[in-house]
Amino acid sequence: MTAAALLGSGADSATDRWSDIDLALRLVPGADVAQVADSWTDLIGARLDPVARTDLWRHGGLYRVFLLPDTLQLDLSFWPDDKFGAYGPSFRLVFGEANDVAWPPRSEPNSVLALGWLHALHARSSIARGRGWQAVYMIDGVRDHAVQLVCLRHDVPVHEGRGVDRLPAAITAGLVPTLPHGVDRAELTRAFAAAAELLAAEAAYVDPDNAVRIRQTLVELVRTCDPAADGIRNE
What we know:
Number of domains: 2
Strand order of the largest sheet: 3-4-5-2-1-6
CATH class of the largest domain: Mainly Alpha
Number of helices: 7
CATH architecture of the largest domain: Up-down Bundle
Helix content: 40-55%
Number of strands: 6
CATH topology of the largest domain: Four Helix Bundle (Hemerythrin (Met), subunit A)
Structural class: alpha+beta
Order of helices and strands: EHEHEEEEHHHHH
């Protein structure tokens, strides 16, 4: 190991009692990433007795995530010598040096908008078919993608909702009506209408030339949640 860095809240000196420990390790040139991770896993297993673990590969590094009995999350990432670097703003060297690496591209707004209206299509069909819990899932998708667009517009973190609580209170208050409080058709349709309105409002920023047509189609999706309504289709 030739370098180490704190990631996440630890890098920003913003930890609290619920924070995880997130440490990135730079391996010597030619080291086998999986073999080194397994060696650390044996050591952690003997000393901390994890409840469970999982692996994630990102940017060429292996993140091994441990769940400890006291509920602490321990994230250790193991990096080939040429891949170790800051892939985001929350990165603080403990020792050694880091490579200059390109940050991952931000979410592309048009792609996020498209995923929003795709979820809206399936929210409508789920409600119309009486599939209440599937409808909840799809309505959540409409809202979540609209929220991603709001976060992009306000330049706060998008991933995993990390920036949502930094948004102005007037905006987050508008998210409350998008939460379904039951799985009956009337309640799902109400929440869907609120989520669709949120998405339509963001479409005006992302695709102003087409925003009116997007809004009209979202309104039609909400209108046809009732299977007796004209124009309902199977998707």
